[in-house]
């Protein structure tokens, strides 16, 4: 009996270690490439200084850091509020193509690509946000409500210079354009190139907070870019753009069947 309990204890300890390792791994994936990494490094430096002040007898510095680190949970919540929020709202799933047929999925992607190419050729700037699993309504400002199927002609009309909502972003949710003329949060990342304008900074800023895919068409150069996870892929041609969108927006149920 004692041996059975001991073996069971070993199993629980192993399970505990694996669960903690998995959680740490998921946290690393979540914050990889974001500003949270720099903040974690800063906290690690403070912890090292705290230990060194204890060993070296620097009592005043140790007292200051001790009081600071005693509220470390509150500090972490304040510093990483966006990352924590992004992790928690992943609990609710909202696949982009959840209610669409394969034919409709293909049509939406084709229209998006056709529209972006046409906008690029006319040097009309555009910002198109495609919601995936994480809801984005909380991050949008102003905007006009719509309910329309995405089409090349509609995108060109929205982003034409004569349109009153051409400066904002178009929002696509569940395969339909739901809003236009929306303002997005700009990135605060100091490492972002100063060459990027407001559209690119808005795309990076939103995708740092949610898992949306954002297409940007530059008004100056006509280049088409895709932004996800705060990372930007530039100078996409029509064929490459279609492949990228299919890979990012294809529903998991279809990917599972193919694999």
Give an overview of the whole structure.
This protein has two domains: 2-89, no CATH class; 102-258, YojJ-like (1 (3-Layer(aba) Sandwich). It has helices at 2-31, 35-56, 59-69, 72-79, 81-89, 102-121, 152-158, 198-207, 238-249, 252-258; strands at 126-130, 144-148, 169-173, 176-182, 213-217, 224-228, 231-233. It is of the alpha+beta class and 259 residues long. It has a seven-stranded mixed β-sheet, sandwiched between helices. A hairpin with a 2-residue loop joins β3 (169-173) and β4 (176-182).
The general outline is elongated
Instruction: Quickly give the CATH architecture of the largest domain.
Output: 3-Layer(aba) Sandwich
Q: Structural class of the secondary structure composition?
A: alpha+beta
The major pleated sheet works out as: 7 strands, mixed
Work out the radius of gyration: 23 Å
Number of domains: 2
CATH class term of the largest domain: Alpha Beta
CATH superfamily of the largest domain: DNA integrity scanning protein, DisA, N-terminal domain
| Overall mean confidence score, pLDDT | 81
Please provide the count of β strands: 7
Percent of sequence in beta strands: 5-15%
Order of helices and strands: HHHHHHEEHEEHEEEHH
Low-confidence stretches: 91-95, 252-259
User: What level of helicity do the residues show?
Assistant: 40-55%
Distance between the termini: 46 Å
Please tally the helical runs, counting DSSP H or I stretches of 4 or more residues: 10
Query: What is the strand arrangement across the widest sheet?
Result: 2-4-3-1-5-6-7
**CATH level 3 topology of the largest domain:** YojJ-like (1
């Amino acid at each position: 009996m004692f041996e059975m309990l001991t073996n069971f204890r070993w199993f629980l300890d192993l399970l505990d270690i694996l669960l903690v390792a998995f959680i740490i791994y998921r946290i690393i994936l979540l914050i990889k490439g974001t500003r949270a990494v720099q903040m974690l490094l800063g906290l690690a430096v403070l912890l090292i200084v705290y230990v060194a002040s204890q060993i070296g007898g620097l009592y005043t510095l140790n007292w200051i850091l001790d009081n600071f680190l005693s509220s470390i949970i509150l500090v972490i919540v304040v510093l990483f509020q966006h990352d924590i929020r992004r992790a928690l709202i992943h609990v609710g799933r909202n696949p982009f193509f959840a209610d669409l047929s394969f034919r409709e999925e293909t049509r939406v992607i084709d229209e998006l690509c056709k529209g972006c190419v046409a906008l690029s050729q006319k040097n009309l700037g555009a910002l198109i946000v495609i919601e995936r699993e994480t809801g984005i309504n909380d991050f949008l400002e102003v905007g006009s409500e719509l309910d329309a199927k995405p089409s090349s002609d509609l995108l060109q009309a929205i982003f034409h210079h004569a349109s009153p909502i051409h400066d904002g972003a178009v929002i696509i949710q569940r395969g339909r354009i739901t809003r236009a003329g929306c303002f997005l949060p700009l990135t605060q990342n100091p490492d972002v190139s100063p060459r990027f304008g407001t559209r690119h900074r808005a795309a990076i800023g939103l995708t740092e907070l949610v898992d949306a895919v954002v297409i940007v068409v530059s008004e100056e150069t006509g280049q088409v870019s895709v932004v996800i996870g705060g990372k930007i892929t530039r100078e996409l041609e029509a064929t490459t753009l279609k492949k990228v969108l299919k890979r990012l927006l294809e529903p998991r149920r279809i990917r599972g069947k193919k694999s």
